[in-house]
Write a structure and sequence with these properties.
two-stranded antiparallel sheet; 235 residues; globular; alpha/beta; Rossmann fold
Length: 235
């Protein structure tokens, strides 16, 4: 049985991804910063709850010990994320973004995946078919953000796009360092979740499709790439 850990999975895209992978026969560890919400969500899905705060070293170490004792890990989905530049009725743009906003965003969206992946590497390296899926964004694409007249170009925020561009860079470097693993970044689309105040244009069912697809790739699949549901994306 394939064992999968999803961070930030008690709601939104993480929850839907967990639901789909449980249905596909995975043993899913549902990671959640809030232990009680995680427990409730896991019970709903038939998954196993893991208290996991990606910004806290001790929490991550505890999750590693728990999952290692249970048997190991094959798939890691770095889904937990924040968008601190969202404010009621507006997005904080370049004129008002602060170093603290950048720091908070990178702590979860960049340092979090690095912290989790580093801690779980020994378990993943024992797997015969290790997969890492980093949940990125269309806003990570420097190419798309440079195309005038598009919604991506029009997005005024700084912290969130920068964090996802950094996550893409990390994805490439880890994929080169560990060629026996399949390590990719995915763009789920502008999905209606709490992350964006439920302003997204599509359902979590649609958004989770590319995450689930990449979680299932085999040893002959792509690695070091950046994809949406239609295929590769420009960096």
């Amino acid at each position: 049985m394939t064992t999968t850990l999803i961070t930030g999975a008690n709601k939104g895209l993480g929850f839907e991804t967990a639901r789909r992978l449980v249905a596909a026969g995975h043993l899913v560890y549902l990671g959640s910063r809030n232990a009680e919400r995680g427990r409730v969500a896991a019970e709903q899905l038939g998954a196993r709850a893991v208290h996991l705060d990606v910004t806290d070293d001790a929490s991550v170490r505890s999750a590693v010990e728990f999952i290692e004792a249970e048997g190991g890990l094959d798939v890691l989905i770095n889904n937990a994320g924040i968008q601190v530049e969202m404010s009621p009725g507006a997005i904080v743009g370049a004129a008002d973004v602060t170093a603290e906003m950048m720091r908070q965003t990178f702590e979860t969206n960049v340092f979090g995946p690095v912290r989790v992946l580093h801690a779980f590497l020994p378990l993943l390296q024992r797997s015969t078919a290790a997969v890492v899926v980093n949940v990125s964004s269309a806003l990570a694409s420097l190419t798309r953000r440079s195309e005038a007249g598009t919604a991506t170009h029009a997005y005024p925020g700084v912290a969130y796009p920068a964090s996802k561009t950094a996550l893409n860079a990390i994805t490439v470097q880890y994929a080169k360092a560990f060629p026996d693993m399949r390590i990719n970044a995915v763009e789920p689309g502008f999905t209606k979740t709490d992350l964006n105040g439920n302003t997204g244009a599509q359902t979590v069912e649609r958004g989770a499709e590319v995450i689930v697809c990449m979680a299932h790739i085999g040893s002959d699949g792509p690695t070091g790439g950046y994809f949406d549901a239609e295929g590769p994306l420009p960096w």
